[in-house]
# Entry
Amino acid sequence: MPDQAFYSPSYVSALVALATSDTQFLLAYSKIIEGRFFGDAETAWLVDKAKEHYAAYDTALTRTIVEQELHAEKANPDMIEAVLLRWDGLEEVDDDTFTYVMETAEKYIRRQAILCAVMESQPLIEEDRQDEVIQLVEDANAIRLVRSVGAIYPEEIDPLLTRLSVRDRDVENIPTGIPSLDAFLSGGLRKTETAVLMAAKSKGKSMWLPYVAGSAVLIDQSVLCYTLEMSGDDWAARLISRMSGVPINNLSTELSGSEFKATTRITESIQMLGFEHATAVVKEISPRKCTPDTISMDIEELATQGIRIDMVVIDYADLMTAGRYKEDKRYAELATIYTDITSIAKEYDVAVWTASQVNRAALRRKTISLDDVAISFDKLFAVDFVLGLLQIDHEETPDENGRRSARIQVVAARRAGEYIAGNQVPVRLFYESATFKEIKDIIDRDPESAVEPNVVYELDVMHDTDHSDSEGPPDDAAD
# Structure
């Protein structure tokens, strides 16, 4: 947008659109923008209501919320019609305009504040109250964004020491439900952290993700789940089976009339499953339509409905697109997607689980490394934990009960990585109920252990990073 359009109606319209419906703008400007800086009552109402709503819920307005607020305030029909007409007249802001408005809004807001101060000063000038006039103008001219540059030491050393002394006790971890793995993760994945499970094609990625989602729901954490390959119903069936313990094929008969209820939400393709006090949201979406912005908007939309999301599960991120920031090369686009996902984890205080595919050569190894990831190595730079699901020949062979085994390896870790990277946890796979159970010894597969509860045991750190047991050179092609 050119500079000469700085105060044009199109600039003001773009600014109002962002001030009412964009959380990034509200995060930056909600504390200094005011409805009185705009010339009409409808815009003033929208801007002030957006500030109020953002302060309460950390989300922007929607047309539905605007209507609800107008009726709650018992606004007269003319006011309701005028505000909704103003809302409907706001145009979508393109990327260039967004950048320009974000960079110049502070100057515009300060200018409008000074104009308001001058108009408010007129009666004070007539009464010769010059000191108050000067104060009004100085206050308006002093409006600035408060930009945090971080904690300042040594002035803030005491708060730092306090945080360090309690941080491992105060963090909220979401366990996977596999005791030894949770021990390595100091209780599980923390909110603001992102974890990726690497596995070969058709080896359990889409079983692991409903499993960890169910683990979260069972401890009253709300989860937002995206399925980009499998149908929403099939994904939800795995989630319900994992939480209820009822085999997937028996759900329709054994759960009918039980205390567990599944309800369908009549908005797009989202299904919600109620379990105790938490909520699971399963969204079937096309890979071409699933972007990091999609996830952000869904988290914010659910917040307006009173659903606070604690974990996001993406099945799986390698199929997403970058949206407005799409790169020419797929490997570069994947790196952008994963970086944006980690940003979502931190911005919305959620844990994020997803999965990625390893190359074919990794199938034959007892241990894997980051070198085995398919398509883009750079995509894993931003994540906090990388796990591997390994299954060599004898583990893939079913035992007497038809159970297969595998190992979950901590491939890389940002938190305590030097202590836990390389460790493996043998598990048994229960495909019929989308469940993993830890076993003591993957070599001696006692059929009775298939139904035993999870067991914690000591592990030796694995150091097979040179792939000396590989039968051939790495194959970087994705299956």
In short: The chain has 16 helices and 13 strands. The two ends are 45 Å apart (CA to CA). The longest strand covers residues 404-413. Confidence is low (pLDDT under 50) at residues 264-271, 441-479.
